[in-house]
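Illustration 12: RNA polymerase sigma factor.
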Amino acid sequence: MSPIHYLAEDTLIDLLKKKDRRAFNYLYDHYAGALYGVIIRVVLHKNYADEVIQNVFVSIWNHIESFSHERGRLYTWMINIARHAAIDYIKSKAVQNDQKNQSLPDVVNSSENHNFARTEQAERSDYIGFKSILEKLKPEWKVLIEMAYYEGYSQQEIADHLNIPLGTVKTRVRSALLHLREILHEPQ
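Figure caption equivalent — predicted structure in token form:
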């Protein structure tokens, strides 16, 4: 069985509903990173996040029939499952007891917490005018960044939606991110 390299969302959903394992592998390969990012922001610890991401994909596999196009996109549905699973996990008594028993230096010095702080600070940038920084990008770069990071499109979906080659999308996104880095590091 050869791996699947590209699936349109409708096809992916249909194959998942038929319990196609290659479609599930495709789903995991293309969405695990984004879902993991949502989870780690809630649970704060890699060990917890690893457990939750596994539970999230089992839940997606077992409940794909409940997905409805009328309520939104597959990505949004999966993000909601991940967020709720992470919150439920943190609220569980076992996790709360584990956190109470963890020594203070372990919590304060963990690199995961430092990474979380950077992530949280980056998210706050939206509230302090990051959208206005996007205005400094070329229009063709700005639309790609908005679609990828604010609307949750994959690069292949962007290419299909804008009718441009995937390689062009990848090159423009990379260029836009490099330019954003320069903008953000300019002296004020």
